[in-house]
Inverse folding.
C-alpha cells in the first residue's frame, strides 16, 4: 500500500501570543487586576505564553520585580508563562540579582551561544 503525500505545505497552526502592555508605575492595587488579565489572555488565546511589554514601566525597582513575579505565578497557575518584551537593561540586571529568570524576546536562549561566536579550547590551556 502506498501513501500519497498531500500537495503544498503541511498545515501548521501557529498561534501568536497575546500581548499585555504594562505602562507607567503600577500600584499594588492594580496588581490583582493585571494577574486576572494574564489568566484571561491565557484562557482566551489558546497559547501558553503571554508577552508582557515592559518598556513603559519606567525605572525598575522592587515593586516592578514583585509585579513580574506575581504575573509569572498567575500565568503558571493557569498553565502558561510570561515573556518580557523590551526590558530595560537595569531591569534585566535587577531580575538576575534577585534570582528570577524570565523568557526575554529577541535574546538567545540561555545555553545557546549567539550566532557567529565560536569558542575553541586547546587541551592543557588554563581556564580563563
Amino acid at each position: 500500500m502506498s501513501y500519497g503525500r498531500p500537495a503544498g505545505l503541511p498545515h501548521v497552526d501557529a498561534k501568536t501570543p497575546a500581548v499585555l502592555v504594562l505602562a507607567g508605575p503600577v500600584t499594588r492595587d492594580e496588581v490583582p487586576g493585571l494577574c486576572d488579565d494574564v489568566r484571561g489572555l491565557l484562557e482566551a488565546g489558546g497559547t501558553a505564553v503571554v508577552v508582557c511589554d515592559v518598556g513603559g514601566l519606567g525605572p525598575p525597582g522592587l515593586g516592578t520585580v514583585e509585579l513580574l513575579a506575581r504575573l509569572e505565578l498567575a500565568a503558571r497557575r493557569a498553565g502558561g508563562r510570561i515573556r518580557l518584551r523590551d526590558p530595560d537593561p537595569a531591569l534585566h540586571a535587577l531580575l538576575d540579582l534577585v534570582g528570577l529568570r524570565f523568557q526575554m524576546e529577541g535574546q538567545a536562549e540561555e545555553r545557546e551561544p549567539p550566532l557567529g561566536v565560536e569558542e575553541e579550547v586547546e587541551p592543557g590551556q588554563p581556564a580563563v
The two ends are 60 Å apart (CA to CA). Strands lie at 18-23, 49-56, 81-85, 103-104. The first strand starts at residue 18 and ends at 23. The chain is about 30% helix and 15% strand.
